[in-house]
Amino acid sequence: HDTLLEVKNLKKYFQMEKGVMLKAVDDVSFAIKKGETFGIVGESGCGKSTAGRTIIGLYDQTDGEVLYDGKNVHEMNDKERFSFHRKMQMIFQDPYASLNPRSTVQEIISEPMEVQGLYKDKKERQERIYQLLEDVGLNRDHANRYPHEFSGGQRQRIGIARALSLDPEFIIADEPISALDVSVQAQVVNLLKGLQKKKGLTYLFIAHDLSMVKHISDRIGVMYLGHLIELTQSKKLYHKPLHPYTQALLSAIPIPDPDVEDTRERIILEGELPSPMNPPSGCVFRTRCPHAMEVCAAEKPEWQEIEDQHYVACHLYDPTKTGDHDWSQVAA
Ligand code: SF4
Ligand code: MG
């Protein structure tokens, strides 16, 4: 079967002071197919990074399961975990913070190989490093330089080379382009796309807005306050967003073609993002939702498949919950 990663009812809670619980990831489920790019989108603090870190095993989950190739990631023995570490790698938002400033590019890239005991032959490892530098659009002259000698985009390329050094199958990219100049963002996205094709990689691509992620992702899940609220193919999500939050996110993206008049109505969300330590009852989005109904405060909307492969958690799409709500208000 073609599922590579399965996330089932994943919860990651953090115990804060005074017995307060921060529910960073609350009952999130999705599956990623081999060779696919799956995007997770949401505002900062929605739990998307925590989800990524829990999936790769940097955090223990509070509840739920993460299955990689059918194996429970959090129940692996040492040997299984060791080989799993080779298969799944992470690229971080701030390439500068994630690269040791005192190490040369060569040392940075070879470190994971050392840990895993790969390419022990010196010459072989050297060739491997040169090849990786080439793969990410750098060259062998860069090998003995230090991170501060590079631009933001180049540093992200170094981070990508390091992630590739173990020949992974799956890469979690946590906002890999957010810290970069707009002019450089497309280059890094194109690099990631090219590498995916060449090496058959599967991506989980985490982003805070939809503008770039819709170009790279096959499917996208939208998160809000620890919850997954909508999931479908990128095209569908872009053309027919169902959840009021997704509709608002999309209305904030400018239409790229200057010859097309942007007649869409911008949906401005009222109010602040609530604290994940004190989320609203019922639907977590209800304090900012332009369509909120009485039922939204009382009941948590269920995750349902509205159309083929299009999932949403919103009472508007449950006829038994909407009562006499005016459906014509719902833009779609
Ligand atoms: Fe808005 Fe209610 Fe749907 Fe939540 S369940 S998004 S509050 S309409
Ligand atoms: Mg983050």
Write the layout of secondary structure elements.
Layout: E1 3-15, E2 21-33, E3 37-41, H1 48-56, E4 63-68, E5 71-72, H2 78-87, E6 88-91, H3 105-116, H4 122-135, H5 152-164, E7 170-174, H6 182-199, E8 202-207, H7 210-216, E9 219-224, E10 227-233, H8 234-239, H9 244-251, H10 294-298, E11 303-307, E12 310-313, H11 319-322
Parallel strand pairs: 3-8, 3-9, 6-7, 7-8
Antiparallel strand pairs: 1-2, 1-4, 4-5, 9-10, 10-12, 11-12
Helix pairs in contact: 3-4, 3-5, 4-5, 5-6
The structure holds iron/sulfur cluster and magnesium ion.
Description:
With about 325 residues, the protein is of the alpha/beta class. The two termini are about 35 Å apart. The strands form 2 sheets. It has an 8-stranded mixed sheet with strand order 6-7-8-3-9-10-12-11, sandwiched between helices. Strands 2-1-4-5 form a 4-stranded antiparallel sheet. The radius of gyration is 21 Å and the shape is globular. The chain has helices at about 50-55, 80-85, 105-115, 120-135, 150-165, 180-200, 210-215, 235-240, 245-250, 295-300, 320, and strands spanning about 5-15, 20-35, 35-40, 65-70, 70, 90, 170-175, 200-205, 220-225, 225-235, 305, 310-315. α3 (about 105-115) packs across α4 and α4 packs across α5. Magnesium ion binds next to loops.
